[in-house]
Design brief:
The complex is a heterodimer. In chain A, a hairpin with a 6-residue loop joins strand 5 and strand 6. Chain A contains no helices and 11 strands. By secondary structure, chain A is mostly beta strands. Classes of the chains: A mainly beta, B mainly beta. At the A-B interface, strand 4, strand 5 and strand 10 of A face strand 4 and strand 5 of B.
Amino acid sequence: NAGVTQTPKFQVLKTGQSMTLQCAQDMNHNSMYWYRQDPGMGLRLIYYSASEGTTDKGEVPNGYNVSRLNKREFSLRLESAAPSQTSVYFCASSVKLAGSVGETQYFGPGTRLLVL
Amino acid sequence: SQKIEQNSEALNIQEGKTATLTCNYTNYSPAYLQWYRQDPGRGPVFLLLIRENEKEKRKERLKVTFDTTLKQSLFHITASQPADSATYLCAPETGANNLFFGTGTRLTVIP
């Protein structure tokens, strides 16, 4: 049981290049999320997917697109990378614990992206 | 707009003492609040969830309180150990079943 996996672990891009960050979970969770984490800013939600086939914008969606390919996989695409997108990107999936009101999130190890 | 504040960026404490971290939120009333631990270079890990109608929640050496009047949650680690050194994130729910994460408090437990 690998949990949440992300690829790549580290990437360097030039301004204007595109790339896709991959995320997969093997816990059969319905909801999945993409966050970015910057120093002093905390984790900010980019996009989320409450179920297969649905996606919604989070707090900072500009410059990104997502695809919920199936229940397991949720990818994040940067069409034209900018230096402001230099960050650490985390994917997460969530489940509602028995007897709980809300969903607990399980995070991947992160992708460190540097845009020059 | 919603705002989350964690009391300080960094907290140093002697081994064996109780660490207390503070999370304040403004402009809304979350139905529940979660706490996560994050180690350097890794993703956050869930620790505890507390509902708005619960005053206190415990798990081993961890205790969380939730004061909806003060709009504040306190996170305590008793008998702290060097292995407890990490960044702790407060995450109230946003009302859309998502979480709004604070910037975190970096705890260092000194042997």
